């Protein structure tokens, strides 16, 4: 009875508190009615329909069901038996007829009375045998599941009355404080914590800590284990605090320290690794120095610095904020302070590819523009919420729309208002991702070591009058965790990613195109209407057709499905096919990377190592793994809903799609320090898979990195592993990968650690066959060496013995540096090919003849300004126009001036080279862009 369920639900919300109340979105189960016939289209799907072709109908037609009856039963015979069985059961009182037939050919509906049920516990020796799904049981009767048998017999009752709660960075501050207080008072006996508890949270009476895996370093171990015993229990009462660390079978890191516990429990705390010459890190600190000198407070939320006045606010900086940030005296003071600070790391900066004498000056020249750009994600979320509220208001006020449309519009309007509230309410924003200083740290404008940089956010609607909030994830994780129709778990509930928060300001969805090299995975983005490169810029392989309709994911919205329940032993996670591409940054017109080789004294080059700082990495979600080879996902461009797919975990008929839909390929990008490892001789697939696991584990062990601080992916893909891409996933980078290229013995030390992990003696090469304390020999691989939960798909390929000889040769090799980057001539030729006129090519030859800095890109279409500069210098935010005679016409000159003025207003430097100008005189005025002329 649906009405009765609604009444119970309302009463539960009024009289019960969480978690006992029935949630408003809870999936209610109604009593089913059984009909001895097949289902027709109009029938209620919640009922059961027993036709002669159903599982039970097939059971009736088996010979062993009625062994005495020799003729073969047909489908009509089974249909008669089904009806007669239910009639006999009705007479016996075991079922009741609750729905009479609507016509002569129809069948009545039956239900089972509660009094007809007997609940009988089994003895635990035999599992239940379903004769319908499994015609014949084994002679032994099958085996029971020992885990659940022992759990229900011995353990389940002990958990009666226990309550546990999360303690993570995603729990809002007010709730987190309440849980800490309840935990201290003993009202909440168990807290499940992320490393937030490591950051100085003091629970005075805590006497036990259980770590579910081994921390990455002794310093982390000391912090986490140090939560216990802080009240001095061992000293006063003689009861020592207990610290239990579970060493996961599937983690080589855990198993390594399980055999060497003294290295973790009493190990030396190694100073943390941080790459001081990381460009993003240095830039963020320079920004912080400047902001301090201006004296401008950022307030509690961005509403304190942006103009939110009116129905369609400009979201520009408030006038007093704009004037404060443009204070030239503050810039001068900040420049002086920044120079003093950078002088303390001058040795590190000398080795940095990106740093030059003019770098700091260019940062201050563009600092206001960078601040504006850092506000764009907040502006995008705010405008999207305003737009959603406006559209839904129109639907609600439209008398021609159906009641269901209006109900959906009201829900979406409430969601939009909740999002606006999250962005601007200062009493709620202080501990959220939108607190001003935390927000600018996440955007990379200010330093923020504890926050993910440039995250993706998922809107989580509140429950039972709780506050709505945004859940943030690093973008490389979010491309799969926040993937279309995926399920995420939060605070005891399951949510489905059902919608994209669409950016406002464009009628059409912005998409991009790119080419991935089929040999090495190098990325070639395609600008504007150009066809893109034909040959790979890294390995000169002929490129295939481009990936089109690439859709940059920014923020998503979720809808609650139901509670997490006991039926869900394993979390459901959508399987996506993710492709990765990498592209090195350009500095002064040249790709910025260091090329080194691993040189063996007798065999020559064993491998190439190419390190790039702040390389661009794209992760592209090609579609569901279980799909029928269709690329991408269907996106409703009007409402932002993701279309359902046969391969989706959750099908949802409540997300109404409009006719405006396209198929897109979601992607994200970020800049990371990366290392390309390319072994000589084209090793076999199993060797590359084994090297991938061995080198990653060895680097992490050697440099004491967490598993999530270093990532590795095969390029161009898992089926063809020619190159291994290692990249530093930690914010700012640890400088480990650069160390492998710069230090001649560093790679050999990693190889030694890899040999030890693989059960080989690194000095003799002898196979030790098993790990210390292991009970059995390791043949190809085991969870003590190369196997782990995260590389399950590679388990068939991984073989430690296949890489023994190669690792031994690496152990005897040294790393020797090669010249930096690809030749300037290659980059010049690439620009010449992209140039739009002979005059532009003449300008490029002019720069090259005087050994001036070449631009990074050519023919870049800038959508916001509706212009396509001929060339762009990305680092200095400078655009170049090389104007031929056609630009002398008054109308064209007027349009050019308007476009270029807009660029300058936004902070870009615009330099125009006209066909009749003295080009030498122009470049001499901009040494920070072009460098100094050096004629040969």
**Portion in strands:** 15-25%
What count of helical segments does DSSP give?
29
Query: Main beta sheet, described?
Result: 11 strands, mixed
Overall geometry comes to globular
Can you describe what's shown?
The protein is of the alpha+beta class and 936 residues long. The protein folds into 5 domains: 31-118, no CATH class; 164-265, P-loop containing nucleotide triphosphate hydrolases (Rossmann fold); 279-451, no CATH class; 512-565 and 572-817, no CATH class; 825-930, Endonuclease, Chain A (3-Layer(aba) Sandwich). The protein contains 29 helices and 30 strands. Strands 13, 14, 15, 17, 20, 21, 22, 23, 24, 25 and 26 form an 11-stranded mixed β-sheet that branches. Helix 16 (376-396) packs antiparallel against helix 17 (403-424) and helix 21 crosses helix 23 (746-757). The model is unreliable at 232-237, 647-651 and 819-823 (pLDDT under 50).
Comma- or semicolon-separated keywords:
Rossmann fold, five-stranded mixed beta sheet, alpha+beta, 5 domains, 936 residues, 29 helices
Topology:
Blueprint: H1 2-15, E1 34-35, E2 48-49, H2 55-61, H3 75-91, E3 96-99, E4 109-111, H4 146-155, E5 164-167, H5 173-184, E6 190-193, E7 208-211, H6 218-225, H7 233-237, E8 242-245, H8 252-259, H9 261-265, H10 279-294, H11 319-325, H12 328-343, H13 346-350, H14 359-365, H15 367-374, H16 376-396, H17 403-424, H18 426-429, H19 436-442, E9 456-460, E10 469-473, H20 475-481, E11 487-490, E12 493-500, E13 512-516, E14 523-526, E15 547-552, E16 555-563, E17 576-583, E18 586-587, E19 590-591, E20 594-600, E21 604-624, E22 633-636, E23 661-679, H21 685-703, E24 710-716, E25 721-728, H22 736-742, H23 746-757, H24 804-811, E26 814-817, H25 824-834, H26 838-849, E27 857-858, E28 871-873, E29 878-883, H27 890-905, E30 909-914, H28 919-924, H29 927-930
Parallel strand pairs: 1-2, 5-6, 7-8, 9-16, 15-23, 29-30
Antiparallel strand pairs: 3-4, 9-10, 11-12, 12-16, 13-14, 13-15, 17-21, 18-19, 20-21, 20-26, 21-23, 22-23, 23-25, 24-25, 27-28, 28-29
